[in-house]
């Protein structure tokens, strides 16, 4: 498989890993959009949100729980933070392995910017 994130999981490509458990890996984004910008990925390859199955509910829940845990550890949980998942090209997805962006450390506005 030629998936960038699978290669990170398999340690074929180095990354700045900040969290890991049995199901989830988190690392600093190489193009941060906030003072803290972490990507959380499942260790099992799922290309897009559209490819999720009912059996994946716990996996996405684990990703979300891990994002909240990291926000607390980084110290911005109470002030607020942004969690984003993109789906397909028009949704802004550039790597076809589901991932969650955790961004904090600054004020966010809507629409995103």
UniProtKB/TrEMBL annotation:
Residues 4-113 form the HIT domain. The active site is at residue 99. Keywords: Hydrolase. The keyword Hydrolase applies. It comes from the Bacteria. The keyword Phosphoprotein does not apply. It holds the Pfam family HIT. GO terms for molecular function: hydrolase activity. InterPro entries: Histidine_triad_CS (IPR019808), Histidine_triad_HIT (IPR001310), HIT-like (IPR011146), HIT-like_sf (IPR036265). A motif (Histidine triad motif) lies at residues 97-101. PANTHER family: HISTIDINE TRIAD HIT PROTEIN (PTHR23089). This is HIT family hydrolase.
